[in-house]
Amino acid sequence: MAPTHVPLLVSVVLLCVCSGCVTAGGVSLRADGSPGPQECPEKALEVMRVLHLNVGDGSIVELDTNQTDTSPITLYDGPVESMLDKSLGPLPPVTRLYGRVWTGGPQVVIRYYEAHVPDEEPMPICAVARLGRGQLQKKPESKPGTAIVEFSRAGVFVVNSFR
């Protein structure tokens, strides 16, 4: 999709869905400290349908905009601002993804609840950060509430629920 179509598409989405920040509040934690299952809000599912973002669509994301191109990086429990390196459907590179990090389990868990295209209103989404081969696994020297991971980039994938 041409970059000039993104503002129009975002406007259509905003007309179809009342945009609001979806929070991660109320997520149950498993015994190891990782987050339990969570449904994707209907507003986010509707926005993703309008944007033609399908389950499994993916891209590359800088996990923490404050630690771009750094290795290793330290992630903290709580909110995170990430940035797309490549387009994700109609969302262009430099789109900010807002979500939450959990460091309690053996793997870092990052769930995204909102996308913010530059100069547009934020919109709700559901996506997760992932890497294969245990690369979002915490390094042993990670302190409680933090996770040291090897790379600043990961894959980001659209989901319809969090497991």
User: How many independent structural domains?
Assistant: 1
N-end to C-end Cα span: 30 Å
Rg (CA only) = 15 Å
Helix/strand order: HEHEEEEEEEEE
Enumerate the spans where pLDDT stays under 50 for 5 or more consecutive residues. 10-24
CATH architecture: Beta Barrel
Strand percent estimate: 25-35%
* CATH class term: Mainly Beta
Structural class: mainly beta
Percent of residues in helices: 10-25%
Question: What is the quaternary state of this protein?
Answer: single chain
Provide the spatial order of strands within the biggest beta sheet: 2-4-5-6-7-9
Overview of this protein structure:
It is a single chain. The chain has helices spanning 5-16, 42-50, and strands at 38-39, 58-62, 73-76, 78-84, 96-102, 109-116, 123-130, 146-149, 153-158, 161-162. It has 163 residues and is mainly beta. The chain has a single domain (38-162), classed as Beta Barrel (Lipocalin). The strands form three sheets. A six-stranded antiparallel barrel has the order 2-4-5-6-7-9. It starts with a helix and ends with a strand. The relative contact order is 0.24. Keywords: Signal.
